[in-house]
């Protein structure tokens, strides 16, 4: 039986609309692959607003220990990608860590 996640790690960042497509490609090439290899699952969300675009990355983990191993012992520290400062309006200062209370997937 597959392991079910108990922890969701949430990162949010925003960029100018004119940089959004380039940042999305960069984030998918550099930020998402390590999560795909290690996390139980990953989602990337995009919200286009008038002047800026928000990206949210959610990774799912079996437990705090698994997530802590991935983050090299610092689960709440933001690990910026090399070009984040070039793309992002401001560098995010925090990561959200949530316990998953209900996990129902699928559309009805």
TrEMBL record:
Domain of life: Bacteria
UniProt xrefs under InterPro entries: Dimeric_a/b-barrel
Protein name: Antibiotic biosynthesis monooxygenase
Natural source organism: Bradyrhizobium yuanmingense
